Known about the structure:
The structure holds two protein chains of two kinds.
Chain A: H1 12-25, H2 32-43, H3 48-58, H4 62-71, E1 83-88, H5 91-94, H6 98-109, E2 122-127, E3 139-141, E4 144-146, H7 151-168
Parallel strand pairs in A: 1-2
Antiparallel strand pairs in A: 1-3, 3-4
Chain B: H1 3-18, H2 24-31, E1 38-43, H3 46-50, H4 53-66, E2 73-78, E3 90-93, E4 97-99, H5 104-116, H6 143-146, H7 164-169, H8 174-182, H9 185-195, H10 207-216, E5 223-228, H11 237-244, H12 246-260, E6 264-269, H13 274-289, E7 294-297, E8 302-310, H14 320-327, E9 351-355, H15 356-368, H16 370-374, E10 384-391, E11 397-402, H17 407-414, E12 424-429, E13 435-438, H18 448-453, E14 462-467, H19 472-486, H20 492-509, H21 515-531, H22 535-539, H23 542-550, H24 552-561, E15 575-577, H25 587-591, E16 597-598, E17 606-607, H26 617-621, E18 627-629
Parallel strand pairs in B: 1-2, 5-6, 5-9, 6-8, 10-14
Antiparallel strand pairs in B: 1-3, 3-4, 7-8, 10-11, 12-13, 12-14, 15-18, 16-17
Helix pairs in contact in B: 4-5, 8-12, 8-15, 9-10, 9-12, 11-13, 12-15, 19-20, 19-23, 20-21, 21-23, 23-24
Amino acid sequence: MAENSLSFKGTKAQEEELMAVIAKNKDLPGALLPVLHEAQEIYGYLPIEVQQMVADGLGISLSEVFGVATFYSRFSLNPKGKHQISICLGTACYVKGSDKILEKVEEKLGIKSGECTPDGLFSIDSCRCVGACGLAPVMMIGEEVYGKLTPKEVGAILDKYINEEGGKQ
Amino acid sequence: MTIEELNKIKKEYEELVMVRKVVKEQGEEMAKHTGYRKQVLVCGGTGCTSSGSKKVIAALEKALKDNGIEDEILVVRTGCFGLCSLGPIMIVYPEGCFYSQATPEGVERIVKEHLKEGNVVKELLYKETVHEDGSIISLSETNFYKKQMRIALRNCGVIDPENIKEYIALDGYQALYKALTSMTPDQVIQEVLDSGLRGRGGGGFPTGLKWKFAKGSEGPIKYVACNADEGDPGAFMDRSILEGDPQCIIEAMAIAAYAIGASRGFVYVRAEYPIAVQRLQIAIEQAKEFGFLGENIFGTGFNFDMEIRLGAGAFVCGEETALMTSIEGNRGEPRPRPPFPAVKGLFGKPTVLNNVETYANIAQIIYKGADWYSSIGTEKSRGTKVFALGGKITNVGLVEIPMGTTLREIIEEIGGGIPNGKKFKAAQTGGPSGGCIPAEHIDTPIDYDGLIAIGSMMGSGGMIILDEDTCMVDIAKFYLEFTVDESCGKCTPCRVGTRKLLQYLDKITKGQGEMEDLEKIDELAKHMQKSSLCALGQTAPNPILSTMKFFKDEYVAHIQDKTCPAGVCKSLIRYEIIADKCKGCTLCARNCPVKAITGTVKQPHVIDSTKCIKCGVCMSNCKFGAIITK
């Protein structure tokens, strides 16, 4: 995974936004989770530099922040791709073969679940139930939902995104 | 807000909303007083949004304008109707016409032909609602809805969840008024006790008793909390309630707060539910604006306020002590009980924590009385239960049934049976903590004790239907992989035990299992049940134990015969082409990534099992069903 990680590049504006979030929540009991949620919104992920700012801002240790950030699956310490692909591995999707969808996506992009392509365009995650069980098996790319999928259809869907990106370059 | 003001809003909106609840003729009469000739309800829940209901609503609004009838037709975006597999769902009232799988193109026709010219577009209706003689039945008369009884879901798919006035129109906040002005906290608790309501999150603990303990705990500060961290993959009851009827949770929490003497509430909801979070946030703001939250509610001196806290994707946070630890801003690890939350809960204060569905029953119990509620269901399980029906079933969706309904009724009548002519094998309830109900127990009445007696459990409401193509060892392994991922690691029996169980299952599904592994699994499972700190570890072995109990022959087949009877476990299966069915179209050979299939055009093909990597591409490509697994 480390080879895929891009080095941290935060902007001044992001930092100011984070400081405002910390100031707003500082006195809230149990502030760490809400702050980390917003920090991830701002930066897209929670690199150690951001965790350090949160720790300093809330007056707690970095180890405590790290402990919480790594406990919850929603928080990511690694950057995500421009197109975040998540494949539902909830029970309803699993019994309808979503594991095969995941395999196909991994094969096509040459990365594993939890990783990001070296060009930063795609990342794959598996998730537990997006709640669209009526459409099982389900894959999401960004906000777009692809339901009632078969492994056969996966290639064409990804090609659409790959071609779009190719066209821009 | 006074009761007069409340009743005024109720009266004002009553007919508008009741048009959607009464029979067609009555609805037509009512519609005359509402200013809208017709109402179109479109589901804006997660399921239908995923299948494109936003585009449908946009197309609908545009088409109404284009036809110049936008002032005569009311468009309402509701929460979940329950029939997610037919989404996006669109209902036209007063006639109750049920358009399924709506598309923007279809909507243009519906607007022009039905809404403008008055001719129902029969071919776009859900097929079950059109009889052979051309007559149409309404949504509530379909098999899916007929057997249901909606208490917790009463407003889902009926009202606009972002408009508090529609909630008020259907008796909203009458229960809170009744509790605050004519009942003592003890009477409220007694009413909940008498109703027989038990925790719908899966534990089944009597709700009234929980409240009683918290009321009895001394202290100036107490909290009420709502568990909306619905972690069972494949369950979406709580989400649908929050999306479809968020006010009912606010009202119930206010009632609970009054009963135990709290003035502050927390809803802990999954961050993965953006629509639910947003609607709940809107609902809280509206409730504040109308004076149902805040200070001196209904002029009684009772104060109550609440806020949302987001979960961050940890299954263990559905456990009550872990949930509280998480709200406090820590890693969501459970704490030993006692002390129970009713004595020492959130921030060390006495706390009542109930699940969303439990709260969804409260206002009705207080408003209509415990006698009414306790007349529904079975002796020890009163009321109804909501299930998220999924997996190999025709009608995937949300169903609410009176306790005591049999599994057969759910599957065959409400669920519409198993698709593709396959045979029903088992229903899995309770997700990673639950067990399975095999075909031989299909007539078991569903209630807390009935399911425990056959070695399964009610669970929070996930119900996944499995057919003959599902391998029970594989499904047990699926759940174990889940609990290994989600074990918080605090206590050893769970952290190490789940991993060890998974290793056994992995061995068995690879054809390397031995018969004594089954005994070792059984022994380890019993230790975990007894010695794990929280319910996650205590219940983690359930999926294995119940599949071993009912499907032991499948385990034995994997171990002794080295075969997977359902044809799922990769190491144990072989792909074969049935020569009689193969037309020699060459599609499989062209798609095989390792060139393991050979044959000439129009002649049966053959798979070389030494080259085959068992990816299944051939089988999914074959148009003649000629490829099978053995």
